[in-house]
Structures are given as C-alpha cells and as structure tokens.
Design brief:
The chain has 306 residues and is of the alpha/beta class. The chain has 3 domains: 113 residues, Alpha-Beta Complex (Conserved hypothetical protein from pyrococcus furiosus pfu- 392566-001, ParB domain); 73 residues, no CATH class; 55 residues, no CATH class. It has a 5-stranded mixed sheet, with helices on both faces. α1 packs across α4, α9 packs antiparallel against α10 and α10 runs parallel beside α12. The longest helix has 18 residues. The protein is elongated, with a radius of gyration of 30 Å.
Length: 306
Amino acid sequence: MEFPNKTKQFLDLVGVTNNSQLPENELLEQSLLITEIHLAAHQPRRYFSAQAMESLVASIREHGILQPLLVRPLESGSYELIAGERRYRAAQTLGLEEVPVIIRSLNDQDAFQVALLENLQREDLNPVEETEAILQLLSLRLECPQGEIISLLNHIANLQKQKAEITNNVVRSQWETVEQIFTVIGRVTPDSFRSHRLPLLNLPKDVLEILRQGKLEYTKARVIAQLKDEAQRQELLAKALEENLSVRDIKSYIQEIQPPKPSQNPALPNRMKEAYQRIKQTKVWEDPKKAKTLEKLLGQIEALLE
C-alpha cells in the first residue's frame, strides 16, 4: 500500500523509503488508541488557526479522518506523532478513541525532517513559520548552519544574475538538494524565498512575534515595522489588532504621530558650488570691505561644520 498524499514524497526526500525492505506493518494503514500516541518534545508547529481547526473538527465529525497520521514506535511501547498534529488534536477534541496511522521506524533527525515537510503543506501556515521551517529544513538536509544556507542562496542568485555556471562541485550538489526540497514544498521558489521571505526574519521582534502567531498580515506588519520607537510601535500593533486597521489606516496613523521631516532644498548644493566658483573668479578678497564680510561669513560656515 502506498503512503498517502505527499507523505511518501517526504520520506523519499529524506531518503528513508524503500518499500521492498519495509516490514509489512510499516506499509499498511492501522488503527491505534489515541492514548498510545504522544507529541514529540520539539514540534515544528507552534501556532494553529482556531478557525481552521474548527473547520477540520467539523469535517472529521462528518467524514472521519481521511488521511492517516504518521507515527514512529518508541522503546516505551507507545508511539510518537511525526505528521498529522492537527488531525490528532481534532480527534482529541471529538473524543475519538482510535485514529488511523501508518507506523514508520525513523531516527530523531529523519522524523523531524518529515514533520517539517508535512507542516509546510498546511494552508494555514503563516509566512514566518513557513520561512523558519524551510530554513531549518535546508540546514538539516545540507548539514550546515542557517547562515551558510543564506550565503548559498545569495551566491547562486549572483551567479544567475551574471548568467554564470556553478563550477564548484560541492556547491552544485548543495544546490541540487535545495531545488529538490523547494520542488517538494511546491509553494515558493528558492529565489522568491531569498528575496521575499528571508527579509521577514529581520522585522522587529514584537512585530515578528505577532506575525508568527498569524494575527497580522505581512503587508500591515511591514508598514508597522517602519516605526523605530518601540513604545509607539507596540501601541500601533495593539490598535491595529483591536480595530483591524487597514494598511492605509496604519500609514495615516504613522504620519500623524511622527514629526515631519525637515524640508531639504535640492538647489542648495548647487548654489553653494556656484557661489564658490564666483568667489574664485571675482577674487572678492582683494576688496578690503568685501574681504571683511567674506571672513565673517567663512567663520559662520566653519562654526556650522564643528
């Protein structure tokens, strides 16, 4: 029996699927008591949309769990959930005693990678969670720090801009893995991830946390992040959430509370340059009266520069 939906594709990517060598109980859908299944200590998913959960609970109440959970056996005799946490929580809400599962023996790292990949298929995953999960998955698969992943993405982008080929074999192998991962994820390309998603992680921490929880749209968060004063930013965050402000409302609010920027005369540098040239040409310092005035003006300019 094939694994459902993209679960087999995830296992193939991690490199742990070999159906011909799997025990029979790791190929078939089975039922387990929900009390036998436990969440992993480190779950990649931290926030769930309440509305999406309500919809899932209603669907399972009517149709049952259509896609089995993926679990792995533990030495204690119980099982650890790898993929399907939303279905697991919905089943608990409905008080179901048993749930359909596929049991798969995986080590800690492989289990976490499959969990990351499975979560990246969720429609309600917010952009910050998605960005962090992709970066974490790339780091695990390439076995290098996340900073090196970002450097790799920038390096390839520069090569592509220059229409140059990848000559380093190690870099070529890493890039093939990156492309394979993004193909499985399916919702974002390496280039759009680099240029549009990674900048999310540079937002102020207070804005980033609200965005991570799925309480605020990215377009609004990006505008609020322009406020450098932390107290003003937090006040605007609270107001935007409470009153569901639009992007236009947020921009208007920022304009009201920020002092106007001092106006700059774009012609001033040209006037200074022109005045300097005329002073040189006319040699006004040769006139004693004008020289005295010029000396006074130069003193004022020098004072401005201190």
